Automatic annotation (TrEMBL):
The keyword Secreted does not apply. This is DUF2157 domain-containing protein. It comes from Flavobacterium quisquiliarum. Keywords: Membrane, Transmembrane, Transmembrane helix. It comes from the Bacteria. The chain crosses the membrane at residues 48-73, 79-100, 112-129, 135-152, 157-173, 179-197, 209-234, 254-271, 280-301, 307-324.
Amino acid sequence: MIVYDKKILDNQILVDEADTLFKGGFISKEQKKFIKKELLAFRSQDNILVRIGFFLLGSMLYSSICGAISIVGMNAENAYFQICCYIFAAVGFVGSELLAKQNFHNHGLDDAFILGAILNIGFAIGITTDGYESVIALFMAAASIFMFIRYLHLLSMLVFCLAVTAFLFFQMFEFGDIGRAILPFTAMIFAVIFYFVTKKLINQLIKSYYYNGLLLANSFCLILFYLSCNYMVVRELSEELLGTEVKPGTDIPFAFFFYAFTFVIPTMYLIQALRTKDRIMLWISFLGIGFSIYTIRFYYAVLPIEAALTLGGLILFAIAYFSIRKLKEKESGLTFKPDRINHSDAILNAEALVVASTFGMKPEVKPQDSPMEFGGGGFSGGGSGESF
């Protein structure tokens, strides 16, 4: 199903690991360049600004192709309007395929055609169904997961997660007020199921081609689970979807559950992240705790904003100071010492080192001379000479 050559995918993994080893100081810059030169890899862009520039160029190219087709098709008037987005989507699929055959991956040009194809699928289905949201979300989810599976496109996985969530929401709206009322609990259950499905798929991976996309979906589930029953989200959506008005002295149904959920879940994320050393969950827990504090302050301003910011800064400073003092001398586990390597995939690191040794490259780090000087001694003596 993957359009790319598996050998190039494996080479790209080794090139990425070579970059990681270079950042960790295990290989030199010349060795990293040598690995990239010897291994055939994708035409990709690591610089996000350059990639955005190529995306804009790709979007202009895509638009010009669609514009040229429209000049010819405008003669059909209304009939062309009904099918034009399908044609534009086909242009996106063809362009994505051609760029993939030329080994463009995460380059910017391929992003424009892949995302353009998904977007035009949504427009086409919207025109055909007169804006039926559930069907639009379903087809966009199908198109985006196809793009991810075939082109290993991370943004397509993000679009898939958003489209599936939108499909769930629109389906719940079909049940009227009952569906809107139970929407937070439905989204919470969906996030839990989706989380364990993606976790199982990650554990069953033989090749790491789909790892980043599944990790993105898994992280999306953590965010969706927290937001599904966050007090502020539930209260604002209740007023928007159900038309309920929370008057002074009253609150939304199950308010205590949503209050507890708002603070308990980020705390659980934090504990689990520290226990499993999961960096992504750790950042999500920090963001969740910050948003939980904002949620309560949005409705209950206990202190003036200046005093609240000052007090919060002092608390954060105290936590950071004592954490650093506690962890700065630890050499393993949870430590304040900087990582030499950002992620610990031992197998891939070993592969990169094997490649380096196969090419005959040797590290240029000179071992430190021992402070203990030994004497003479022939053969294998510990430095003893022949004289007494």
